[in-house]
Amino acid sequence: MTASAARRTALAAQGFTDPLPTGAPTRRHLTRVVDRVQLLQLDSVSVAVRAHYMPMFSRLGAYDRGLLDTAAWSDTRRKPRLLTEYWAHEAALLSVQDWPLLRWRMREREKAGSPRVDRVLQRSPALPDRVLAAVAELGGATAGQVEAHLDVAVAGGRGPWWDRTDTKIICEWLFAIGELSTTTRVGFQRHYALTRDVLPPELLATEIGEPDAVRALVERSARALGVATEPDLRDYFRLSPRQSSTAVAELVADGVLEPVAVQGWTAPAYRHREARTPRAVQRATLLSPFDSLVFHRPRTERLFDFRYRLEIYTPAAKRVHGYYVYPFLLGEHLVARVDLKAERDAGTLRVLGAFAEPGHHTGEVAAALAEALAEMADWLGLQRVAVEPRGDLSAALGASASTTKRAPRRL
Fold this sequence. Notes:
Layout: H1 3-13, H2 27-37, E1 39-41, H3 54-60, H4 65-73, E2 83-87, E3 91-95, H5 103-112, H6 115-123, H7 127-138, H8 143-150, H9 166-176, E4 180-186, E5 189-194, H10 201-204, H11 210-225, E6 227-229, H12 230-236, H13 241-253, E7 257-260, E8 269-272, E9 284-286, H14 297-304, E10 325-330, E11 333-343, E12 348-356, H15 362-379, E13 384-387, H16 394-403
Parallel strand pairs: 12-13
Antiparallel strand pairs: 1-3, 2-3, 4-5, 6-8, 7-8, 9-10, 10-11, 11-12
């Protein structure tokens, strides 16, 4: 495969060549995107919009974020829960039906334990049972609410911001081993419930051995990526090299994966047998730093010649591009990046920095990016886009943004 064919295959697999909704996106459109990407990574940063909302926007255009909230954190007879939360890539939303595929990870984490959990259990061996009983009684609660219910004292007081109370540690451990699940989030704070009260009983009764589960996860990764190296496939659900290499070999033997050589890639690649390679990609959209198209940085660099590093934890004076930077997809290329901040009180989507990638015409990129920013601002309920004079694209983008009223949904 040529490098271009690999890019187009990857973009098609991720849903960037699917037709955009002709009207307001619906639950059916949301399900289509989840079927494509398999998971939506969660992250607490909300400087512009939380990470799990953005992939839907990137693939569907403006949509009601309540649609995703309902799919993930609501369960009724008419609209059963579609998504559940667990450690997939990182903390992520994934199809409820895929929860049994990660039971082996839950058992693994229970067996392995952790020094922090072990210390808590040494101090309070009955705390897990007490937490489960409290959650059952409360019917869904934050760790703080559980703690207040139990009146658990925090040994030694609260430490730095990364320390947790004993109750929070145990709630997270019970979540990791599958005893608790997230029933809802309020202000991004996780509300725990007994897993049996969140997921359908038939899923809880489903047992899938680790080899079969891992093979299914690798096959899902391959569908989501289109064409990928073994480390790419491994990273999607954070599998071990042993698990992934065995599953890849079996999927190749069964004809599910086809070995291919991609121009410029040093490692062997594998294409899912159902992957398609469109003649062109016609999409202009911004991407979350945690979008599944770009969250594996080595693949992003290999596929798009786009070196991308999140600089949240880099001191401000040492940042190259900014605090929370969104790549900009234009056609089959990542052509720019913008550091964005939503100033909701001022009704402004502020571009703190705008940078073009080498070899891409700044006028064309600026015009398309201005339209994408206008659409994003409108989606977020913001009235204007303001461009700060930082970055080689800022002047052209500022000029384009000043004349852009509303973004089209296609190139």
